[in-house]
Predict the structure.
Amino acid sequence: MKKPDPELIDHENPEWTEAEFKRARPASEVLPEAVQAKLGMRRRGPQKAPTKRTVTIRLSPDVLDAFRATGTGWQARVDLALREWLSTHRVA
């Protein structure tokens, strides 16, 4: 392992150890709500009426890659493609 350059070491702010990373908590857990509001930190509340459910599904790599390549919202597009398929096919 390469030795760190002594000129770049900041003794007032040393690198975190593994133990320090394990003790770390998200800002939302440790900052008062007033500070969070001032910083513009917002939390998403629970859905009033969840419209979708989380599931695990196995997809072919090419299908998954094609949907992911369409960018953000690819899971919604998978949902739409399945809806369209259901509208033209009978489920046994």
